[in-house]
Design goal:
The chain is built from one helix and five strands; from the N terminus they run αβββββ. It has a single domain, classed as Jelly Rolls (Sandwich), CATH 2.60.120. 18% of the residues lie in helices and 61% in strands.
Amino acid sequence: MKKYITIAVIAVLFIGGLCYYKFASDFSYLGTTKANVTSTESSGSAFTFTGEKGKKIKVFCNSSVKKGNLKIVLTNLNGKVIKKFKTNENYCEQVSLKDNGKYELSVAYDNFVGNFNVKCR
């Protein structure tokens, strides 16, 4: 009896771990970038990922702009802008990719104070 309970507990933990990995952890995202800027700064960060034509990606944007400018932009590696995202909001937006290839999601800020957390799945 103890053997079956042990196996059941291990199975539940394993399935729970898989669900956490798939739906909650940062490891399941194509990329993430975040910062909490407390004094005026200008900088940026970006990540690239490979996309397939027709594939839909979800971009999760959470930002708070207290001062300055924040830009969140999805481009292909040729520099063509695919989508500009809203800032100073917390939302999720789905984007359909038009081509196979590499894409870049960049966050740039100028004279900025605030925070952002951008993820792509």
